[in-house]
Amino acid sequence: MELTDVLATNKALVKVAKLYRSAQADALSALALHPGQDVLLWILGQEPDGMTISEIAARLGVEQPTVTRSLSRLDQGGWFIREPVPGDRRATRIRLTSKGRAVIPNIEAAWRTLAETATAGMAADQRAALVELLEKVRGNLRTLTAETE
Predict the structure, then answer these.
(1) Which of 37, 59, 38, 61 is nearest to 50 (CA)?
(2) Which residues of 16-53 are buried (b: 16+ CB within 10 A; e: fewer)?
(3) Could you tell me which residues are beta bridge partners of residue 92?
(4) Strand partners, 117
């Protein structure tokens, strides 16, 4: 790859990543959330009976301490409750409150707005190609570093 291509590729990737993260943070701040918290709450929203921390970690592909830290940051918001797991004194089940369940459609709407804004002016086949190319980039980058959240 020529240096001009290297520079153009790196510039485009960095700028898109920064802009997306900034737009995501802005959209989620309107919901009193930070990036990452939306995904955790959304996953909990898919399980009406709640999930244990180990189940959440497995679903997110992260370690349990990461989930514990994320939950402690969300703890004061009234998004979820902690319940003991019958028969397992060490485990705690995390279940969304009505406030937590009510924010799920808003999270999905924020995601939709981000995706629609990012792909505005693209035809369906272009959006599909973009996703395919981004997944290829992701796979390539995974050879260099461990993927987190």
Answers:
(1) 59
(2) eeeeeeeebeebbeeeebeebbbbbbeebbeeeebbbb
(3) 84
(4) none
**Closest residue by Cα to residue 149 from 78, 71, 76, 63:** 63
Question: Which residue bears the tokens 């395919």?
Answer: 132
Q: How far apart are CA 138 and CA 124, in angstroms?
A: 21
Quickly count helices (H) and strands (E) in the chain: 6, 3
Determine the Cα–Cα distance for residues 142 and 148; give it in Å rounded to an integer.
Answer: 10
**Which residue shows structure tokens 């009234």?**
78
Encode pLDDT of 53-69 as tens digits: 999 999 998 999 999 99
Q: Which two tokens stand for residue 133?
A: 């190319």
Mean pLDDT, residues 45-58:
95
Among candidates 148, 142, 141, which has minimal Cα distance to 63?
148
C-alpha span between 149 and 134 (Å, rounded): 16
